Amino acid sequence: MRSITLVLSDGTKFHGKSFGYEKPVAGEVVFNTAMMGYPESLTDPSYAGQLMTLTFPLVGNYGIPPFTVEEKGIATFMESDRIHASAIIVSDYSEKYSHWNAKENLADWLKREEVPGICGVDTRQLTKVLREHGVMMGKIIFDDEPTNIPEAEYEGINYVAKVSCKEVIHYNRGAGKKVILVDCGVKNNILRCLLDRGVELIRVPWNYDFNNMDFDGLFLANGPGDPDTCVETVKNIQKFLTNPKVRPCMGICMGNQLLSKAAGASIYKLKYGHRSHNQPVRMVGSNQCFITSQNHGYAVDSTTLPSDWESLFVNMNDGSNEGVKHKKNPWFSAQFHPEACSGPLDTEFLFDKFVELL
C-alpha cells in the first residue's frame, strides 16, 4: 500500500495508506457516524464532491453486494448507479469480508469506480478536528508524488446539476396517481418507496419546469451541495405554490430546503452537518420522537419562515429545523431520510401520508 496524506485547509495532516484507486483528489471533508451502510452512503448522490470519513473503526468487513437491477430499472442494493463520494477515509479496512450477499471487497469496487480510499487514519481524531473547526476542504496527496495536487472546491458549485438526471424518466406508467419527482440527486430507495405505494412517477431534471404537466402531486428529492445554487428549481416550486390549483407536495433533505426557500425562508450552513443513522427528531407540538438517518450540511432558518408556514420537526441535539409544513395546504417536508437505507425506518409513514393526500 502506498503512503498517503490527508491535508486539511488549516494545515492539519493525517497520514495513512491507500487501499482504493490511486489518484490525488480534493473536496469537502465530512464525517459520518453510522456503524454500517457504506455501500449505500458511497452511492448516495448527496455525497458528491465530498471526502467521506467514517467514524466507525472497522469498514469493509461485510464486502460489497452485486450491482443488480430490479424490474423498474432501480439498482437493488445501491442508492444510485455509481459511487458519488470523491473518496472514503477509514481507520481499519478489512480486505477479507463475510456476508451472504457480498460479491467483492471494498477496495476492488473503489478501484473499478476510480475512487480513492485511505485507511490507517485516526478517524476519531479527525472527527474531533472537524467538530471543533467545522467541515473543511481537504486534499489527498500521495507521499511519493508531491506534485499534481488538485485544488479543493465545494462552495458555490452546483452539484445538483452534476448528479440530476438529464431527461424525463417515467416509472409505473398508468399505474395510478401521477407524481412529479424533481431529481436533485434522488436516492433509489425514495423511488422505491413511492413506486411500492402504487403511484405513477415522472422523474424530471432539477431545472425542469414541470408546471404545465398533468400531475397529482409534487415530490422534491434530496441532493448534494448548497441549495442556494438551485435558483431555477426554487422558481419552479414558487410557480407550483402560487398555482390556484392546490396539489400535495412533499420534500426530503434538499427538498426541505428548496421548499422552504420557495416559501420565503433562508438557509444557513451547519458547522459540521448531520450525517448518521441516529439523529433524534421531535414532531413539533408533541412529545413524539423518532430516530432518523440524515445526510446534509445545510439547514432551514426556522425564524425566517413566513407566517403561513411552521416547523414540522426539530432536531433534539442542536434544535435545528428538520422539516416544515404549510398551515393550510397539503405541503410538508422532512430534512431527514424517512426511506433511509440502511435504516432506520421509523418515519416511513410520511410516504403513506403523502400518497393519501393525492
TrEMBL record:
<feature type="binding site">
    <location>
        <position position="257"/>
    </location>
    <ligand>
        <name>L-glutamine</name>
    </ligand>
</feature>
<dbReference type="GO" id="GO:0006541">
    <property type="term" value="P:glutamine metabolic process"/>
</dbReference>
<feature type="active site">
    <location>
        <position position="339"/>
    </location>
</feature>
<feature type="domain" description="Carbamoyl-phosphate synthase small subunit N-terminal">
    <location>
        <begin position="2"/>
        <end position="141"/>
    </location>
</feature>
<feature type="binding site">
    <location>
        <position position="295"/>
    </location>
    <ligand>
        <name>L-glutamine</name>
    </ligand>
</feature>
<dbReference type="InterPro" id="IPR036480">
    <property type="entry name" value="CarbP_synth_ssu_N_sf"/>
</dbReference>
<keyword id="KW-0547">Nucleotide-binding</keyword>
<keyword id="KW-0028">Amino-acid biosynthesis</keyword>
<feature type="binding site">
    <location>
        <position position="254"/>
    </location>
    <ligand>
        <name>L-glutamine</name>
    </ligand>
</feature>
<keyword id="KW-0436">Ligase</keyword>
<feature type="binding site">
    <location>
        <position position="223"/>
    </location>
    <ligand>
        <name>L-glutamine</name>
    </ligand>
</feature>
<dbReference type="GO" id="GO:0044205">
    <property type="term" value="P:'de novo' UMP biosynthetic process"/>
</dbReference>
<comment type="pathway">
    <text>Amino-acid biosynthesis; L-arginine biosynthesis; carbamoyl phosphate from bicarbonate: step 1/1.</text>
</comment>
<feature type="binding site">
    <location>
        <position position="225"/>
    </location>
    <ligand>
        <name>L-glutamine</name>
    </ligand>
</feature>
<dbReference type="GO" id="GO:0006207">
    <property type="term" value="P:'de novo' pyrimidine nucleobase biosynthetic process"/>
</dbReference>
<feature type="binding site">
    <location>
        <position position="297"/>
    </location>
    <ligand>
        <name>L-glutamine</name>
    </ligand>
</feature>
<dbReference type="InterPro" id="IPR002474">
    <property type="entry name" value="CarbamoylP_synth_ssu_N"/>
</dbReference>
<feature type="binding site">
    <location>
        <position position="46"/>
    </location>
    <ligand>
        <name>L-glutamine</name>
    </ligand>
</feature>
<dbReference type="GO" id="GO:0004359">
    <property type="term" value="F:glutaminase activity"/>
</dbReference>
<feature type="region of interest" description="CPSase">
    <location>
        <begin position="1"/>
        <end position="177"/>
    </location>
</feature>
<dbReference type="InterPro" id="IPR017926">
    <property type="entry name" value="GATASE"/>
</dbReference>
<dbReference type="InterPro" id="IPR029062">
    <property type="entry name" value="Class_I_gatase-like"/>
</dbReference>
<feature type="active site" description="Nucleophile">
    <location>
        <position position="253"/>
    </location>
</feature>
<feature type="binding site">
    <location>
        <position position="298"/>
    </location>
    <ligand>
        <name>L-glutamine</name>
    </ligand>
</feature>
<dbReference type="GO" id="GO:0004088">
    <property type="term" value="F:carbamoyl-phosphate synthase (glutamine-hydrolyzing) activity"/>
</dbReference>
<dbReference type="GO" id="GO:0006526">
    <property type="term" value="P:L-arginine biosynthetic process"/>
</dbReference>
<keyword id="KW-0315">Glutamine amidotransferase</keyword>
<protein>
    <recommendedName>
        <fullName>Carbamoyl phosphate synthase small chain</fullName>
        <ecNumber>6.3.5.5</ecNumber>
    </recommendedName>
</protein>
<dbReference type="InterPro" id="IPR050472">
    <property type="entry name" value="Anth_synth/Amidotransfase"/>
</dbReference>
<comment type="subunit">
    <text>Composed of two chains; the small (or glutamine) chain promotes the hydrolysis of glutamine to ammonia, which is used by the large (or ammonia) chain to synthesize carbamoyl phosphate. Tetramer of heterodimers (alpha,beta)4.</text>
</comment>
<dbReference type="InterPro" id="IPR006274">
    <property type="entry name" value="CarbamoylP_synth_ssu"/>
</dbReference>
<comment type="pathway">
    <text>Pyrimidine metabolism; UMP biosynthesis via de novo pathway; (S)-dihydroorotate from bicarbonate: step 1/3.</text>
</comment>
<dbReference type="InterPro" id="IPR035686">
    <property type="entry name" value="CPSase_GATase1"/>
</dbReference>
<dbReference type="Pfam" id="PF00988">
    <property type="entry name" value="CPSase_sm_chain"/>
</dbReference>
<keyword id="KW-0067">ATP-binding</keyword>
<dbReference type="GO" id="GO:0005524">
    <property type="term" value="F:ATP binding"/>
</dbReference>
<comment type="similarity">
    <text>Belongs to the CarA family.</text>
</comment>
<keyword id="KW-0055">Arginine biosynthesis</keyword>
<feature type="active site">
    <location>
        <position position="337"/>
    </location>
</feature>
<comment type="function">
    <text>Small subunit of the glutamine-dependent carbamoyl phosphate synthetase (CPSase). CPSase catalyzes the formation of carbamoyl phosphate from the ammonia moiety of glutamine, carbonate, and phosphate donated by ATP, constituting the first step of 2 biosynthetic pathways, one leading to arginine and/or urea and the other to pyrimidine nucleotides. The small subunit (glutamine amidotransferase) binds and cleaves glutamine to supply the large subunit with the substrate ammonia.</text>
</comment>
<dbReference type="Pfam" id="PF00117">
    <property type="entry name" value="GATase"/>
</dbReference>
<keyword id="KW-0665">Pyrimidine biosynthesis</keyword>
